[in-house]
Structures are given as structure tokens and as C-alpha cells.
Design a protein that fits this description.
alpha/beta; Rossmann fold; seven-stranded mixed beta sheet; globular
């Protein structure tokens, strides 16, 4: 299942994050794609906020992984630096863990990821507007369909 949305501002980005936060479950995998500055980390901040995480969320670009504990832990990954490294970095326990795995630049490790997951690709349209393509397979397809309403 695939949908395209246009987000005009940060308020709409937060509203989308809130809608997705309502549908999260243990083991949820969300891949975020898009150019630098497209809003991947901003989206993650809003998602974390709406699952009750009060910590400051920032990009794990240099650490690869940041863990935010909550009743539903958030495993925030930025795998941009792994593009040419391969799979030396052990992420499986977080990708396939009991929390929510949010993976920025997921396409760099796509062969490590399951087919059943949700992806959001964010395209910059203007300073504030973004076109977001959301895809989901298996159990995620119903979530994507719900977001289209």
C-alpha cells in the first residue's frame, strides 16, 4: 500500500507523526528517506513526543544509534555513515527489538530489513512544504490505508 501526502508546515508534520504514533506497536519498523534537511529528524522528534518521550531528540549521525526508554522504547538510527561499511555494525537487536525502530537513510541497509515495514520518503518541495510517500506492506498496509483518510 502506498500513499502520497503534501505537508505544508511543521504543524502538519506533527499531526502526521501523531497519527502514526497512535498506531505504533512493539517491533514497529519505520524507514525514513529523503535528502539532508528534508525533515527526517524533525519527524522523529514529533513521533517521540507523541509516544511520551520527553528527552531531546537529535540526529544520531555520529553515534549511529540513540535509545530513548519509555513504555515503548524508541531506537533512533541514522545509518548514513554505514553506506560503504556494510554490516559490521550490530543493529539487529534494535531493528528486530521490542521497541520502535526509526531508521534514517534506511535504504543504505535495505538488505538487513524485513519486507514487513513502513517507509516514509520525504521530498522537499519548498522551504516549508514536503511531499511524503508512505509505503507499508503486510500489517503496515492497513496503517498506511488509515493515514490516507
Amino acid at each position: 500500500m502506498e500513499i502520497k501526502l503534501v505537508i505544508h508546515n511543521l504543524k502538519e508534520m506533527e499531526a502526521l507523526a501523531m497519527q502514526i504514533a497512535k498506531r505504533l506497536f512493539p517491533g514497529f519498523i519505520l524507514g525514513l528517506g529523503g535528502d539532508l534537511g528534508s525533515g527526517k529528524t524533525t519527524f522523529t522528534k514529533y513521533l517521540a513526543k507523541h509516544i511520551g518521550i520527553e528527552a531531546t531528540i537529535n540526529s544520531p549521525t555520529f553515534t549511529i544509534l540513540k535509545i530513548y526508554q519509555n513504555s515503548l522504547p524508541l531506537y533512533h538510527m541514522d545509518v548514513y555513515r554505514l553506506e560503504n561499511i556494510g554490516y559490521d555494525y550490530e543493529l539487529d537487536e534494535f531493528i528486530y527489538g521490542d521497541g520502535v525502530a526509526v531508521i534514517e537513510w534506511y535504504e543504505y541497509i535495505i538488505s538487513m530489513l524485513p519486507k514487513a515495514m513502513m517507509t516514509m520518503n520525504i521530498k522537499v518541495m519548498s522551504e516549508t512544504a514536503r511531499e511524503i510517500t508512505i509505503k507499508g506492506s503486510d500489517a503496515y498496509a492497513a496503517i498506511v490505508k488509515d493515514l490516507s483518510h
